[in-house]
Amino acid sequence: MAILVIAEHNNVALAAATLNTVAAAQQIGGDIHLLVAGNGCGALSETAAQVAGVSKVLLADNAAFAHQLPENLAPLVAELVCGTSPAAYSHVLAAATTTGKNVLPRVAALLDVDQISEIVKVESPDTFQRPIYAGNAIATVQSSASVKVITVRSTGFDAVAGEGGSAVIEAIAAGTDAGISAFVGEELAKSERPELTAAKVVISGGRGMQNGDNFQLLYQLADKLGAAVGASRAAVDAGFVPNDLQVGQTGKIVAPQLYIAVGISGAIQHLAGMKDSKVIVAINKDEEAPIFQVADYGLVGDLFDAVPELAGAING
Amino acid sequence: MLAALTGFAQGTFASRVEVAGDQVNVTREIDGGLQTVALKLPAIVTTDLRLNEPRYASLPNIMKAKKKPLDVLTPDALGVSTASTVKILKVEAPAARSAGIKVKSVAELVEKLKNEAKVI
Questions:
Q1: Which residues, at least 6 apart from A228, have a Cβ–Cβ distance to it below 8 Å?
Q2: pLDDT of residue A87
Q3: Which residue ranges make up each domain of chain A?
Q4: Per the annotation, how and in what number is the cofactor bound (chain A) (predicted)?
Q5: Model ipTM?
Q6: Residues from chain A contacting residue B106 (CB–CB below 8 Å)
């Protein structure tokens, strides 16, 4: 039994979530093959070969895969899985990121199986746990599909080591450009701070921040803690910050060691995105705010006093 | 999935859609920012929260809609199987978080974070 993990990358470096996905594959058990499909990613495949637990790296180098467009990538994956008889793989895994969620349903449809989305725990090779109803319930599901197509929520699994492994690299005949889609461009938010979903510390601001300029307060504190900055939907909808900072049911799901919620009341949709954090600190002037019901440490007070004071205290 | 079965192009998490000739430019919300892809029509687009304002049905239209004919199709008539390969074994509540303590001051908070939780 072999497991195919689709690596997420930018042709230069692997995305952190890939390591969590490999960890999930290890729990399922079996040979783990990592598919690196990209353009000019020979060096990347060598990095990928170092990932602990991976036995083989499949390298598909073709301009068609440069941006991992699902129209081109999904047929390649389907061909790898079902090109031989019996099927070469029992499981296909990818991280439940916007890239994984873009590609994998297309793969599942080509294979004519049901996809199992956002698993947080592996119970056995065919039984998994996944959150439903915005994380308010955990469903244990069993799949009888011949090939299990699974997206993995990265916060549910501890990442494997990015080095120490020694997988063989096998170049595979690259696919073709389906010609129905093309990459035009992208605008990536540049940030010196760690990525939201991978950060050890996350500081989020809500409607209580009042305007976008006040987020500077959080950035100053974040720089001292080496933290990422997030926001609640209220803050994003009000235009304080770009929407890739949104933490919650429809935004990013985070599970840092320390989560500091500043001026966030704690709507259930926001809690769904951060309640797996290890320690939660809430700073809010409304002591009735629901955020205090999940916070390990709550501070009732004006954030415009508390945040600078906190930054000062951490410095000293 | 629909896009794969029909062989059409797909644009998921769309925050902006522009049709230009026989193709559509879709701006997608991805983890690090925005990505724009050009798709040949016909294409399948799934939308994100902030694409537009939904067009709500007005009461007169709801009344009119009641008079429209309804076509009822069954999976059998279409010759497809809707059997799922996924079985739900059980559903349980996630581990609940209990409310923690309230601290009085920033100094106390920092002290707790340093010594009790050991996260900073």
A1: A193, A194, A195, A196, A199, A201, A202, A203, A222, A256
A2: 73
A3: 2-171, 196-315
A4: Binds 1 FAD per dimer.
A5: 0.72
A6: 299, 301, 306, 309-310, 313
